Amino acid sequence: MAWRNLFRRGEGKAPDEPGILDRLKAGLQKTRTMLTDGLDNVLRGHRQIEESLFEELEELLIQADVGMKTTLELVDWLREECRQQKMTDPQGVKPLLAQRMKEILGSCSAPLAEGPDQPTVYLVVGVNGTGKTTTVGKLAARCQRRGQKVLLGAADTFRAAAIEQLETWAARSGAEIVKHQAGADPAAVAHDAAQAAKARGVHTLIIDTAGRLHTKSNLMAELEKIEKVLARSLGRRPDEVLLVVDATTGQNAISQAKMFKGAVEPTGVVLTKLDGTAKGGIVLAIAAEVGLPVKLIGVGEGIDDLRDFHPELFVEAILAEGS
Amino acid sequence: MIFGNLSEKLQDVFARLRGRGKLTEKDVDAALREVRLALLEADVNFRVVKDFIGRVKSRAMGQEVLGSLTPGHQVIKIVNDELTQLLGGKAIPLTMASTPPTKIMLVGLQGSGKTTTAAKLAAMLGKRGRRPLLVAADVYRPAAIKQLQVLGETVGIPVFNMGQGQSPVNICKAAVEHGRSHNNDVIIFDTAGRLHVDDELMEELGEIKEAVEPHEILLVVDAMTGQDAVNVAASFDERLDLGGVVLTKLDGDARGGAALSIAAVTGKPIKFAAMGEKLTDLEVFHPDRMASRILGMGDVLSLIEKAEEVMDQEKVKALGQKLAAAQFTFEDFLEQLNQVRQMGPLDQIIGMIPGLAGAKQLQGLQVDESQLRKVEAIINSMTPQERRNPSLLNGSRRKRIARGSGTTVQDVNRLVKQFNQTRELMKKLGTFDKGKRRMSKGFLSFFQ
Question: Is A251 on the interface with B (CB under 8 A)?
Fold first, then answer.
């Protein structure tokens, strides 16, 4: 696919660099087409701002997976704002909506943290099948490209062949790996990985964990233990606990974020598979309802298709005019 | 769960209607607003919801309010019927070939659970006396082949693979030959995950289909999928003409509205539901149960069925009576824990009880195996009087029990607390419909 190739360059450069917005737009094409075209249609269909316009707007946002609660809040805010500003032209709604979305996403936005001392440690968690191992692999490749030495900790000892999968990513990215056998105690892997990272003087340590449904209390307790053990061997919390969320997920993502928050306090979200979905509106719901910032987004299958998340660019990309 | 108790909400909506003979358009609209919210929160596609509500409305309008049913129940019943209908009515079995081998192809997005489902399906068919062969046709994801091999070994099913060097089409063709010569009567193809918008890879699936002519193509869908589920299902169906759907990760708290969207858009039945990490956790899909789940109304039927499987009928009857009166004792508690342990994870069981899916009191009720032994020891260290009358348990008795069972007073306290919570819960269960005896009897009659 041509537009996916557009992403291949521009890694890690400043967001204001010309061209990156276009590339982001291309990657979010489906989301954009839906929201933009839908929004333009709604706005064009009304001569003035009236109640039916807000109802149609509501439908549009729900269809983008923004969720009932956040949608209602957004639309109520818009309605109130339009009334206060005595706005009558439907076209005025769009910049307001963009402004509000940026506020919601920006209120909890932060770049990927670096540790005060080496190694910087990232713990990657999430439910089954969201793309944790792939994210770890891509993140490793990105750090290696920047000349940082990376060590991976294979703490998914549960899923069949998860360790082999991570080994493949280690080989691809040039990172080192610490692993035990399948079925081993994941906390022990995390501990060994932390010790090895310190001894070998690596810059970044990334720990992959097994996918677990957030409703399984025993598995969440296991995750808490991994984090505790990791924190003890480091002398501080991991610098980021990244919750990996599949962009195709619907309202259950809120439940996931809340339950993981109850166990290991994620510091940010990685939103994966954003290239395939017409939605991604769940980002807004997570920011508004759970207050977790999105740190990275996955926009393709290539090893370098993991991007920093910029709220401004994201909103501009999904709400931009025409092509 | 915000809409964990839809039926209660509808009761409120209809509370004002008592004594009137007919449902008016306004009454129905008010009720359907709640239903609409419940469906949207469950990730049912927006358009599907719209159509659906329209259909229910025309059916519900002007209906006589039957004397025995409250209007709320009646609307729920219509909604439930329509949902069940839309979800395919009855459970539909796998299509099997008249002359073996039956060829089953699994397709879907990345991370939906194809490989695990392939192994579960093979294990299920193996148990039914079939001789399945698993085919590792995912040559893209690192270690996907290895994953299937490990799973195949665990469930004792052979896995055919040609490494990552061959094209999936060639692998599948060769697998059919291999299966024929090895007397396998079912061949299950595990294909790579792909986005429905990825033309190249979708084309590849078409080629595999042409090459092996499968009897059944199953789309594997994550129960947590959002509004996009319709597009995914429609794209796969358009290319491949699906035979059915497997819904995975239903053991979480996702309400699984995707199932409804897919059924509505493709008209294809959901054949299986995957409910856990064990390789035996694959069940035949029951549309009626899913309907209740999407509405957030619990899954009474599954619960009853599970209970019937493991519980001694006589004991159940006695327990049922005690539950209703909230009179059960530590002895019952112990017995019950043992039975519940046979039914499966407690959190799952509780999720099936109507109105309790989100109850706060349940947070402390997680049972893990080693804990159970401790609980047993504590209860065994109580005197018969104490077991029958827990209010006797003062400080010094608790100390004695802790010493006797080799636990701490905190452990004993925790157990007593849990016991009281359970009792509280049972009381709630018994008076499910706000003190109406009809309902509690109705529920208990399931146990008899």
Answer: yes
CATH number at residue B212: 3.40.50.300
What is the nearest CA distance from A86 to chain B, expressed in angstroms? 30
pLDDT by 10s per residue, chain B, length 448: 333 455 566 656 666 555 555 667 777 787 788 788 888 888 899 889 999 998 888 887 766 544 434 566 667 778 888 888 888 877 788 989 988 899 999 999 999 999 999 999 999 999 999 999 999 999 999 999 999 999 999 999 999 999 989 999 999 999 999 999 999 999 999 999 998 888 899 999 999 999 999 999 999 999 999 988 998 999 999 999 999 999 999 888 888 888 889 988 898 999 999 988 889 889 888 887 788 777 766 555 455 555 555 555 566 566 666 665 666 678 777 776 666 666 655 555 555 554 444 444 444 455 455 677 788 888 888 998 888 888 888 989 999 999 988 889 988 998 888 788 777 776 666 554 333 333 333 333 333 2
B288 and B324 share a domain? no
Would the ipTM clear 0.85, i.e. be above it? Answer: no
CB B245 within 8 A of CB B104: no
Does residue A13 contact residue B210 with C-beta atoms inside 8 Å?
no
| Same domain as B351, residue B250 | no
Q: For chain B, what is the domain count?
A: 3
Contact yes or no for A277 and B228 at CB 8 A? yes
To the nearest whole angstrom, how far is the Cα of B404 from the nearest Cα of chain A?
28
> Which residues form the domain of B137?
102-296
- Residue A19 has which token pair? 């061209």
Query: How many contacts, defined by CB atoms under 8 Å, are there between A and B?
Result: 142
Residue B96, in any domain of the structure: no
Q: Are residues B288 and B313 in the same domain?
A: no
Phi, psi at residue B93, to the nearest 5°?
A: -75, 170
* Cβ-nearest to A1 among B198, B231, B277: B198
Contact map slice: A 139-158 vs B, CB within 8 A: 158
CA distance B295 to B32: 12
- With beta carbons under 8 A apart, name residues in chain B contacting A63: 45-47, 227
β-bridge partners, A245:
A271
